[in-house]
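INPUT
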Amino acid sequence: MQFFDIFIYFATMIGIFGILALGLNLQYGLTGLVNFGHVAFYAIGGYTAALATIAGAPFVVSLLLAGIVAAFAGLLIALPTARLSTSYWAITTLGIAEIVRMVALNEEWLTKGSFGLDAITPPWLDLVPTAAYSAFYMALTWAVVGAVLIVLILIWNSPFGRALKAIREDEELATSLGKPVFLLKLKAMALGAMFAGLAGGLYAHYITFISPDDFTPVITMIVWAMVIIGGKGNLVGSIFGTVVIVGFYNSTRFLKDYLPFEAETVANLRMLVIGLLIIGVVLFRPQGVIAERKRIYKS
Amino acid sequence: MVQILVNSLLQGATLGLLAIGLTVTFSILRFANFAHGEFAMIGAYAAYVLSIVIGLPFIIAAGLGVAVAGGMALFADTMVFGRLRNASPIALIIASLGLSMVIRAIFGAAFGADEVGYELPLASHYRLFGAVITSRQVTIIGVAAASLVTFHLLLKRTKLGKSMRALSDDPSLARGRGLNVERIIKYTWFIGGCYAGLTGVLIGAESIVWPDLGYELLLPVFAATIIGGVGNVHGAVLGAMLLALVENLMLAINWSPLFQAFGFFADQDFVFVKTQYRSAFAFIVLVIVLIWRPTGILRQARPS
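OUTPUT
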């Protein structure tokens, strides 16, 4: 029975982080936007869903709100930076993640600060038998993953998706072909942020308690590891990377009872491995484990 | 008011030392190095280990600590950045973020999350136009000022400095004129790392050393670099000073009259911004400069 519970836990976390990774893959993998503040939109989604639920909104409404508010935040942060080069994108998005965390920590009237928000009721508790609830929530999470995947597959094969890819490959070329590069970047940023917001909403309802500790910059880095290990611009790769990283990250959490280290040291060693993985992929296999299949057009 | 100026000078000078290394590598290698703050942390811990654990006199430990930071920057270039010379800026940025994680994880695992200090003798206080300044702060400002002048002279008077400027202005021209580009880049990393390490040691001497020391400086140092204009060393120092001044002023202002004029907080006579929001100002200034003048507040992008 315990094995089953652990499996369900892993599957749910893979679903939630899968949505995060897919959102980042849309921004970085498809469009080439270096978003180092992905956790900000995850946090905004989480807090929005939590506050909406506490205020009495039904689950679906709180989840939609989480997506919408996060998308709006993504749009807002993209406005001043969309015309600038990669380095500035990376810096401003990293900054926004710090700001969001600061607000979550210090605005006690809204977020209860470091104490966090609790009593976020999971959806349809009365309809689903308690024994099957965790499995039900996993299925719910994966339903959202499926919906996100369908949207992304449609985008990947649409003129919109091809325009985003053109921006990634050569921004000046895309501009000279008459593509509205500025607007396309805003859309990509808002969409990716919306997915992160949905993931945050799902997380809040799953854990039923959120605090700023759930939204540290570490989250951004592990999602980056998922996307680049799996292979940028590749949906299957993102899911693969998520399975690998969530598996590694959470199994070390269980392993810590058997390892002769303190919990803090284990956390640091985990970050060490993920950091080395990121550097290793960039140096030795920039296309990721599963390379993006490039379509070759013949005239 | 004088106290604010003194504090801003102190913070601006230490941040400026960090910003010059960042601005030079940013302009020569054309990517924002997210691991730059970690060199400050390395310098601070190296000085700690040498002075407290091994027991060297603090001055020698500090000097060696600075050199260790420079050496680590060189090592980082050999292991990671040097292998990506022809890669896109995106690859370099991601690698630098990964490197920053690795360095912080190593130091976090080795030293734990608790802060350490240098156990320096107590400093004496001076009064200066109503402001309090300690003898240690005077030393810090002096060391920072001397190092900044040294860097200025290095850039203007030495062949290495001239080649660094040439490389930052136009890499292909510099290569075409027969400069040994790789050698100049190596020197740039070492010097930038040393200056970052000096920032770490000075911060450690004034307050404490902890594993996130460098990471927490990242947003302010990028802001200082961008305010001054990327590649502009003098601008970076000016940017650091301005940023420190803005932060301290914003935290010192009592906003109550402003709010009350619009009818808010009618019952509160003192409304201050929480000090936890200090680095939020770095971010706000950064975004304003990016919108208003992305090349920095000084007129030329790169003064010769």
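end of record. The mean pLDDT of chain A is 89.
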